[in-house]
Amino acid sequence: MKNIYTALLSLLFITFSFVGCGNDNSYDGKNGLLSSGGADQTNIDSSILKIYENVILPDANASYEKSLALIQTLKDFNETKSSATLASAQAAFKELALSYKRVESAYVAGRESDEMRDLANFYLEHFIFNSKGDTLFRELENIFNGSGSLYKNSHKGITALEYTLFDMNASSSEMLAKMNTIRRESAITMAEAISLNLKKVQEYYLSESTFLDDSQRAIGLILNQLVDNAYKLKEKRIGDAAGFTLKFKDNPDPTRLEYYKSMNSLPSIKEILLTHKRVMQNGLSDIATLGNASSEAEAILSKIDEAVNICNSYAGPLESNITSTKTRELFDAVAQLQDNYTALINGLNFKQDLLEADGD
Hints:
This protein has twelve helices and two strands; from the N terminus they run βααααααααααααβ.
């Protein structure tokens, strides 16, 4: 399946080094970070390996393991039909969703392979590409009342499973009452589909990924993934809901948040930011230092810490605090983080991809 892009936000291709990097860095103005061989190349290769071994692969492994745990809790709930096992299933969903945010944040697989990009965008989760669920949620309700069937990819992703297990407006007893046989069995089917696709991600990184084959290409892949992920964090996961984007200017609505039904939007934002920090601390900052762009890397880490601190300062869920001044501060911090990544891309003399300004 070909990727669908509804619009593109144009950004300039990089043709110059970021001001402040000077003329002593190892670049020719065309080809990104150049290696003079020897220790520098060894250090670059080692840094790329650290990103893979300490972030990308363990996150893919953990996400798959979380999916297996979720399947088991859903089967337990289907047997017992109790409030306690429903709560366990909801907790397992949160663990899986946050684990997937780690995978998604550094998802270079989608930049290496169209098939893996489609797997993430159209099979695993539908918040960005098939979001806001009015149509999806109506279809799911038809399935749960016996007048529809669970056949679309969108019916079996993380967004659909959240809808199946949560309702922020329902009490625990009311949610339990909604979990009829079809809904319980559908939840298992969704979790099994999610798990199968996360297994494909794990297997891809273990056997098919070319991330470690070419360190220059790998740096470009991870840089562009981080800046694109920061853009989507700012626009889709914060700005649309808070009314800060052109599409929803001055029209805040918490139901536009990614995990508003389970009220897990703020933890997911924090998990994305912490994954960015882990990438920086497990190799990318070292690469920046080798390229005389350490100040740009330090600015990224500083802004990540600022945004995480804002997340930690909320007294309650983002869903209940969407109009808080903290939300504007968080949006602005992530906007600056995106700019800081662009500065690092410039400083390391790589080319920035066009960002996907995709809509519903």
